[in-house]
Write a structure and sequence with these properties.
With 313 residues, the chain is mainly α. The chain is 79% helix and 0% strand. It has 13 helices and no strands. The longest helix is centred in the middle third of the chain and has 30 residues. The relative contact order is 0.10.
Length: 313
C-alpha cells in the first residue's frame, strides 16, 4: 500500500486528474456545445477520446518521474521530503517505469491517430516526450525557458482534443463545408482562447514558484527578467479577461461575475503586490493566488454550455 502511495506521489496524481479534467472539459463544455449550434456532433468516440486522455496522462506521469530522477538542488532544499527516486524507489526502477509509460503513451496515441486517419498526430506525443526529457536534464536550469516550455505543454492539452476532432468532422460534414465554405477551424477560436489563458496562468504560477525556491535556498531575489515576464503575463491575462467580459459576455451575467471574481480580481491584486513588493511572503501569496486563478479558468468551462444554450453571445 505504501509503495502505491509513493508512486501516486511521484507521478503527482492530483495534477494528472486536473489534466484529465481539462481535456474532458474542452470536449464536453467547449467543443460539444459549439457543434450543437449547427446540429453537428463529436466524431471521436468516447472510447478513443479516453485513450488519448490516458496517453496524455501517462506522458505527463513519465515527465514527473524523469524530473524527480534529475531533481535539482532547488527541489531537494525546498521540499526535502518530496523526492521519491533515490529514497523510496531505485533509480533504475524509475528509468524503467519512465520508459514504459512513454512507450505505452506513444503506442496508444498512434492507435487513435490511425483510427482518425491522421497518423502525423503521433509525432506530437513523441515531441512532448522529448521535451519533457530535455526539460528535466537542462531546460529547468533556465527559469524562463523551462517554465515557458512547461506552460506551452499545459496549454497544448485543449489543442490536442480539437486536433483529433477536426479531421473526422471534416470528413463527416464535407457537404456542409462545401455548401457554406465554413471549415471547422473556427473551433480553434474557443479552444485556442482557453489554451492561451491556461498558458498565461501556468507561466505565472510556475515562475512564481521557481522564485520562491530561489529565495528559500538564499540564492537571490526574483530576477528582473523573470519579474518583467510575470508582469507582462498578468497584464495580458487581465486584458484577456477584460475583453471576454466586455465584448463577449455582456449578457451572460453569471459567467461574467464568476470570471471577474475568480480570475480578474486575483490577477489584479497579484499584479499590484508584485509591483510593490518583492518579499518572500508576497511571492507565497502570489503563488496561492495564481493557483486560484488557474482553477478559476478551468472551472469557467462549466459556464460555456450555459452561454451557448441561452444564446448569450
Amino acid at each position: 500500500m505504501k509503495r502505491i502511495t509513493d508512486v501516486c506521489k511521484l507521478i503527482r496524481l492530483p495534477y494528472l486528474l486536473t489534466a484529465g479534467f481539462i481535456m474532458f472539459a474542452t470536449r464536453e463544455m467547449i467543443i460539444r456545445p459549439i457543434l450543437a449550434i449547427n446540429n453537428h456532433s463529436l466524431q471521436v468516440s468516447l472510447f478513443n477520446f479516453s485513450i488519448i486522455v490516458l496517453a496524455t496522462l501517462l506522458l505527463i506521469a513519465a515527465g514527473y518521474i524523469i524530473n524527480d530522477y534529475f531533481d535539482t538542488k532547488h527541489d531537494r532544499i525546498s521540499r526535502p521530503d518530496g523526492n521519491i527516486v533515490g529514497r523510496k524507489m531505485e533509480r533504475r526502477s524509475a528509468i524503467k517505469l519512465h520508459t514504459t509509460l512513454n512507450i505505452i503513451a506513444i503506442v496508444l496515441a498512434g492507435y487513435v491517430s490511425y483510427r482518425v486517419g491522421y497518423n502525423k498526430l503521433t509525432i506530437l506525443f513523441i515531441l512532448a516526450s522529448g521535451l519533457l526529457w530535455f526539460y528535466s536534464t537542462s531546460y529547468k536550469r533556465y527559469s524562463l525557458l523551462g517554465k515557458t516550455v512547461i506552460s506551452i505543454m499545459i496549454a497544448a492539452m485543449p489543442m490536442i482534443v480539437i486536433l483529433y476532432e477536426i479531421p473526422l468532422l471534416s470528413i463527416k460534414y464535407a457537404t456542409f463545408i462545401q455548401e457554406t465554405g465554413v471549415s471547422f477551424l473556427y473551433l480553434l477560436d474557443w479552444t485556442g482562447g482557453f489554451a492561451i489563458l491556461l498558458f498565461l496562468s501556468s507561466l505565472i504560477m510556475n515562475l512564481t514558484k521557481d522564485s520562491i525556491k530561489r529565495e528559500l535556498i538564499e540564492e537571490k531575489r526574483m530576477q528582473l527578467s523573470v519579474k518583467i515576464v510575470i508582469v507582462l503575463a498578468y497584464v495580458l491575462l487581465i486584458t484577456s479577461i477584460n475583453f471576454l467580459v466586455i465584448e463577449i459576455f455582456e449578457l451572460a451575467y453569471l459567467a461574467k461575475y464568476f470570471l471577474i471574481a475568480a480570475v480578474g480580481l486575483p490577477a489584479l491584486f497579484s499584479l499590484i503586490k508584485l509591483l510593490t513588493s518583492n518579499k518572500l511572503t508576497t511571492l507565497k501569496t502570489n503563488y496561492t493566488l495564481s493557483k486560484i486563478i488557474t482553477v478559476g479558468i478551468i472551472v469557467f468551462c462549466l459556464f460555456i454550455p450555459y452561454i451557448f444554450k441561452n444564446n448569450l453571445l
